[in-house]
C-alpha cells in the first residue's frame, strides 16, 4: 500500500458513522461501552447512525435473504444520504458481515437492486446505492487510524505477560467474496489467517498463542435452538485455547462472546468440561492497556468474571 | 480381506450368514456376505427445481460433487451423518425418499459458511441447506425446527419494530417451543451475571422488559416488508405445487 493511500485511510476512518446494532444495546452492551471508551481514549470521532434499524442478524435471511439486504441497506442509506458520511464502522461481526454482503449484492445482483429499490421507495427513504459508503469493522478502525506504532506510544498498562488466543469467528472472514479488501497483499487482512486483532494486542504488549481455531464456528446461530451442538463447538474452542496455553480468549463479536460465556457454563453443567480461560472483548483489553479502569470498559457487564484476573495482571 | 464398503451399505440391505452353502459349495467366510440390490422407483423429477426455487437453493445445479463442503463442514465434524455433498447429490438425482432419511438433522446447519468459502463452483451450500430445511417444512415432512421458530420470532420483531430486544426474543422462543426458561445452566449464568452488575444496570435490564426498542418512522418499511413476504410466499406455494398437494389430500379424504 502506498503512503498516500495509507494516509487517506487514516483520515477517512478518523470520523465514522457508528452502527452499534441490537446486540450492543442488549447482551453485548460491554462491547458498546468499551468501543466508545476506546475511541474516546484514542481521539477518534464517532457519530451514531441516526434512527438505525436491525441489520437482520443471522435470522431474517432465513425468512428471505433480500429482506436482510434491504434492512442493511437502510442503515447505509441513512449514513450516506442523511448524515453525509462515507464510512460506517460496525463492531459486531453480524452487522459488519450483513452490511458487507448487502454492499456486494447491491453492486452485483440486479434482482436484489430491484427489490431494495422497491422496498426503499415504499418505506419512504432514499435507496442506497453501492459505493456510497465503506463498511469497516472496529478492528480496521483502530488498526488503520492508530496502528501498532500509535498504540505502542499510548500504552500505559502493558498487557505484558498475558497469553491470548485471538478468536475471530465466522462472519469476519467468510465468505471471501464479500470482503474484496481482504487477501489483497501486504498490510491487508487475511481470510484464512486473520491477524488484525493479534497485531493490535501484541502492540499493547500481549503474548499471542498459536491458536488453531481462530475462525472456527461457535454455533452462535443455534445458541438456543440447538444448544447441545453449540455447547460442543464452544467447548472445543475453549479447550483448544487452553491447550495452546492461553489465559484469555480475545473476542470481536457479541454473539461469539456471549456464546462462549454461556456455553462455558453450560459445558461444565452438561458435559462436565470445566475451563478457566477468560473471555474478554479486544476493545476491553486495549482500553485497559491504555489505562482505562475495568468498569470504564464494561468488564462488570460480562457474564464471566475476570476481575480477579485483570487485578492479578496489574490492569486494575 | 475386510470389506471396506460395508459401512456404506444400510444394515437392512446387508445379509451375513455364519455358514452357507450354495449349489453344494461351502461359501462361508467373506463370501457369506450378500448385499441386497436396491431398486429406486419413486424419483421426484422436480426435486432440484423445487429446492432451486427457494432462497439459497438457486445455484445447486453448479455442483460437481467434489465434497469440499462436507470436508470443511463444522457440523459434519461432530456428526458424520451430516453430509451436504451427499444431500446435494440426492436432490439433483431426485432421490426424495433417500433425502427424507436425514430430514431430522438438515436444519442443524450452523451457517458458518466454511462450505461456501471452500466451494470451487459457488454453489453456496449453506444456502442449499437452508432451502432444503425450508422445503422439508413447507412440504410437511418435518414440523418447524427450533431454529426456524427462533428465526420467525426474531424476524417478526424486526419487521414490527425495526429493532429487537434479546431478552424478549429468548423468552418468546422458550414459550413457543414449550421449554422451561429456567434451566439449571441458565440459572447459573444469570447468577454469574448479577454478581458484578451495579443497580443502575439491573434497573435498565428490567425496564427493557416493558419498553420496546423501536426505530421511529418505521411503518412504511414494515408495510413494504410484509407485502414482499406475502408475495414471496405465494411464489413458493406455486413453485412447490403446495395447493395441488392440499387438493389431492382433500379429494382423498372425500373419496373415503
What secondary-structure arrangement, pairings included, does this model have?
The complex is a heterodimer of chains A (316) and B (256).
Chain A: H1 3-12, E1 15-18, H2 29-42, E2 45-48, H3 60-63, H4 65-82, E3 87-90, H5 93-108, H6 110-123, E4 134-137, H7 138-145, H8 147-154, E5 163-166, H9 196-203, E6 207-208, H10 227-243, E7 248-251, H11 254-271, E8 278-281, H12 282-289, H13 307-312
Parallel strand pairs in A: 1-2, 1-3, 3-4, 5-6, 5-7, 7-8
Helix pairs in contact in A: 2-12, 4-5, 4-6, 5-6, 7-9, 8-9, 10-11
Chain B: E1 14-16, E2 21-22, E3 25-26, E4 33-35, H1 47-52, H2 68-72, H3 84-93, H4 96-100, H5 114-118, H6 125-138, H7 146-161, H8 166-176, H9 184-194, H10 199-207, H11 219-239, H12 242-255
Antiparallel strand pairs in B: 1-4, 2-3
Structure description:
The complex is a heterodimer of chains A (316) and B (256). With 316 residues, chain A is an alpha/beta fold. Chain A is built from 13 helices and 8 strands. Chain A is 47% helix and 9% strand. With 256 residues, chain B is mostly helical. In chain B, helix 7 crosses helix 8. Chain B starts with 13 loop residues before the first strand and ends with a helix. At the A-B interface, helix 3, helix 4, helix 6, helix 10 and helix 11 of A face helix 5, helix 6, helix 7, helix 8 and helix 9 of B.
